[in-house]
Structure formats: structure tokens, C-alpha cells
Amino acid sequence: MLALPPLAAETIFQIGDFPVTNSYINSTLAVALFASVGLLMRKRAAEIPDKIQNFAESILEVVLGYMDQVTRDHKKSLKFLPVVGSLFLFILLSNWIGIFPGIGSIGRWLTMHGQLELVPLFRPANTDLNMTLAMAVMAITLTHIFGIAAVGVFRYANKFVKLGDIWRSLRKGGISIFVALIEFGVGIIEIFSEIAKMVSLSLRLFGNIFAGEVLLTVLGTLLAVPIGITLPFMALEILVGLIQAIVFSMLVLVSFSMATAELHEAH
Amino acid sequence: MALDPETATVLAKAATIAIGGIFPAIAIGKTASKAMESIGRNPESADKLFVPMLLGMAFAEAIAIYALVITFIL
């Protein structure tokens, strides 16, 4: 019998009213790891880097190099690095923690839906839609904050509700009024595309990582001795974890740099 | 032929992921093949191509992921 992981993360125990789910435990592990490495780095940061500092600096350099390719402006990259870099590293780390042995197999016997089930103690953090949706909503909200900070409230709002463009076209007159009206409709669609961005960002990450978990579970039960057959798929999962981390953070970065770009005055 | 609900669910799941997998696969394959082609023409563009190629693939792949999510919740 297959013990496929259910879509929603399961509650392991409760602290007061706060349900602690197994994916929350895993994300806390990743955060704790980051925090401890960060505190260690802060204490030991030196002019001549030692091994750990060298490693961290080289990762940051690679990330910044790729960010420069998208933003084409080093100052902007440095501004977005705290958000995009930590999203990338957190997603990467929590994806890779998720394929450790013991994740999804060590568990507690709890009564779920009226019957006793083995509930895994750990579950990859990104197999919880709440987690990925939270990250996506945060990223898109920050996009608008950065956009308003870069071009001002009214000019940024003109991207979505193009009343300013209509006003300008009325003074010009002629065909530009019709163009402005069509652009107004496009602006309304733009609002919906912001919502679609959140949905697709979160579902992409969730779907990929959850599918990987299901795939490994199914393959693990195919043979009596499942060592050989899951190994190449584990390698695939390492790759998928990396690619999804890159894709998520790159898409966030693209929307950041598009929101902060100076708007074109005339078409 | 009458289908009982369980069979219909299984069939719908299989059809969703099978049909939903075809077109994103074609799209991703085309993206990769064009990228390879242009790297072949101009090998120096490999670094510049990587990020846009990955983004294009991500958008195409999203469709497959939607199908997958539907499959899971069916």
C-alpha cells in the first residue's frame, strides 16, 4: 500500500492555539541553520577570510553576478540582494534538506481522520502551499513598495489605473484618445496579472517540490530493495531544487526590476 | 459503457497529466533547442542566454505544474 503524502501538511503538536505542522518544523530547521551560520559569520568576519567566510562570499558573488545580468545596474542588485538572495538561499536549502534520509519517513503515530496513521515528523518546507504562497505574496507586495519608492505613488499608480494617460491624451486629442482608452483596459488586466503572478509563483514551487516528494515515495515502493532505483531520481531532485530556487528568485527579481524601471513617457 | 465514479476519476487523473504534459514539453523542448542553436552560432552568448532561457522554460513549465496540481486534487 502506498503511503503518499497528503496535500496539506499535518499538525504534529500544538503550542497553545498555534498548530505546529511538519513542514513548519522543517522550515524552522532551515531558518535556524541560516541564523546560526549568520551569527557565526558576523563574529568571525575578518579582512582575510577563513574557509567559511570564503565560501559564503563566493556564493554571494555568484548570486550578485546573475542579478547584475537581470538588473543591469549594480546598485539595484545590491538593493535587492537582501530579499532575492535570502529567498534563493532559503528555498534552495529547504529543498535540499527535504531529500535527506529521515525526512518524510520518521514519524509519530497519530489519529488522523479517525484512524491511526504514521505522520512524518519532517516534511519539505515547500511542499506546503501556505509557505510558498506566503513567500509569493511577500515578494509581490515588496514589488509594489519598491515601485512606489522608485517612481512615486501617482506615476506608479498610472501603470495600473491609467487615468493620467487619458488626461494627457485628451489634451493631445485625435486618435490618441482611443489609444489611451485601450491602454486603460490593458492597465486593468495588469492588476489581474499581479494576482496571477502570486498564484503561479507559489503553485510552481509547491507543485515541483511536492511532485518530487510523491515521485520518490512511489519509486521507493516499486521494488523490494529500493536503493538502486531511487538514486538517479534523488540526483534529479537535487537539480530540481536548485532550478526552482533559481526560477523563483529570478522571477521575483525580474518583477522588482520592472517595477523600479523608469516608465516610458511616450509610446 | 457506463463508468463507475472511481474508474472515471482515475481516467481523468491520467488524462489530465498526460494531455497537460504534452504541450509544456513541446514548449520547453523548443526553448532549449533554440537556445542551443544560438549558443552554437555564438558561443559567447551562453552566459547571457541562460537566465532568459530559464525564465521562458519556467513559464512553460508552469502549465504542466497546474495540470499536476489538478491531478493531485482530483
UniProtKB/TrEMBL annotation, chain A:
Per its UniProt record, what InterPro entries does this chain match? Answer: ATP_syn_F0_a_bact/chloroplast (IPR045082), ATP_synth_F0_asu (IPR000568), ATP_synth_F0_asu_AS (IPR023011), F0_ATP_A_sf (IPR035908)
Primary localization = membrane
The record's annotation in Pfam families points to: ATP-synt_A
Membrane topology type: Multi-pass membrane protein
GO MF: proton-transporting ATP synthase activity, rotational mechanism
| One GO biological process term | proton motive force-driven plasma membrane ATP synthesis
Q: Does the keyword Membrane apply?
A: yes
What this protein is reported to do is described as:
Key component of the proton channel; it plays a direct role in the translocation of protons across the membrane.
Write down what this protein is called: ATP synthase subunit a
TrEMBL record, chain B:
List where the protein spans the membrane.
12-29, 49-73
InterPro entries registered for this protein in UniProt: ATP_synth_csu_bac/chlpt (IPR005953), ATP_synth_F0_csu (IPR000454), ATP_synth_F0_csu_DDCD_BS (IPR020537), ATP_synth_F0_csu_sf (IPR038662), ATPase_proteolipid_c-like_dom (IPR002379), F/V-ATP_Csub_sf (IPR035921)
Instruction: Tell me the membrane topology, using the record's own terms.
Output: Multi-pass membrane protein
Q: Localized where? A: Cell membrane; Membrane
- Domain V-ATPase proteolipid subunit C-like, first and last residues per copy: 14-74
Keywords of the record: ATP synthesis, Cell membrane, CF(0), Hydrogen ion transport, Ion transport, Lipid-binding, Membrane, Transmembrane, Transmembrane helix, Transport
Classification via CDD domains: ATP-synt_Fo_c
Q: What are the protein's GO molecular function terms?
A: lipid binding; proton-transporting ATP synthase activity, rotational mechanism
What's one GO-annotated cellular component? Answer: proton-transporting two-sector ATPase complex, proton-transporting domain
Where is this protein chiefly located? membrane
Q: Where is this site: Reversibly protonated during proton transport?
A: 61
**What family does the Swiss-Prot or TrEMBL record give for this protein?**
Belongs to the ATPase C chain family.
Its biological purpose = F(1)F(0) ATP synthase produces ATP from ADP in the presence of a proton or sodium gradient. F-type ATPases consist of two structural domains, F(1) containing the extramembraneous catalytic core and F(0) containing the membrane proton channel, linked together by a central stalk and a peripheral stalk. During catalysis, ATP synthesis in the catalytic domain of F(1) is coupled via a rotary mechanism of the central stalk subunits to proton translocation.
HAMAP family this protein is in?
ATP_synth_c_bact
The name this protein goes by in its record = ATP synthase subunit c
Q: Which organism is it from?
A: Candidatus Magasanikbacteria bacterium RIFCSPHIGHO2_01_FULL_47_8
Give the classification, highest ranks. Answer: Bacteria, Candidatus Magasanikiibacteriota
